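Input.
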Amino acid sequence: MNPHSDITAGAINGLYRKLFTEAEKSGYHLNPDEDFTKVLVRSLLINENRYGYWACPCRLAAGAKADDLDIICPCDYRDADIDEYDACYCALYVSRRILNGEKQVKPIPERRPPEEVRMMKKDTPGPNQSISGLSQPVWRCKVCGYLCARDGPPEVCPICRAEKERFELFIGKSTA
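Output.
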């Protein structure tokens, strides 16, 4: 028996509609090949059942959310991939040129650093330098770049809807 047979067409169609609406509202576009896109949506649902989050359907997830934050859909690499190649790595999100049929989706090189590099980066402090005069730390959404000054990151990014875990401390000290 297929362990993913509990994913219904209704669940796939519902998530597809949700992603489509959110993408268009935020200035993004889903791949116009609806059948292909629904295969990716089904894979997101499988990964959600498997890991508890939407790991990119085209990448190997570690299964630990903290290690996979950069590949939770929409991944940290989406915007750079769309800018350079007109589609994200898995081609779920595409540029207007692909949406309008002016370009075709082509293979995209992997932008995600190897695991060894990611683990080294995890232990290295980032740009979280204190700047005098700020009353609150500044948080940055790693998906869309949204910045906010507050004691802790928002539960959900108001721009791209990424969850709290997708924010990084950008400037200042955390009180969260």
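The CA atoms of residues 136 and 150 lie 5 Å apart.
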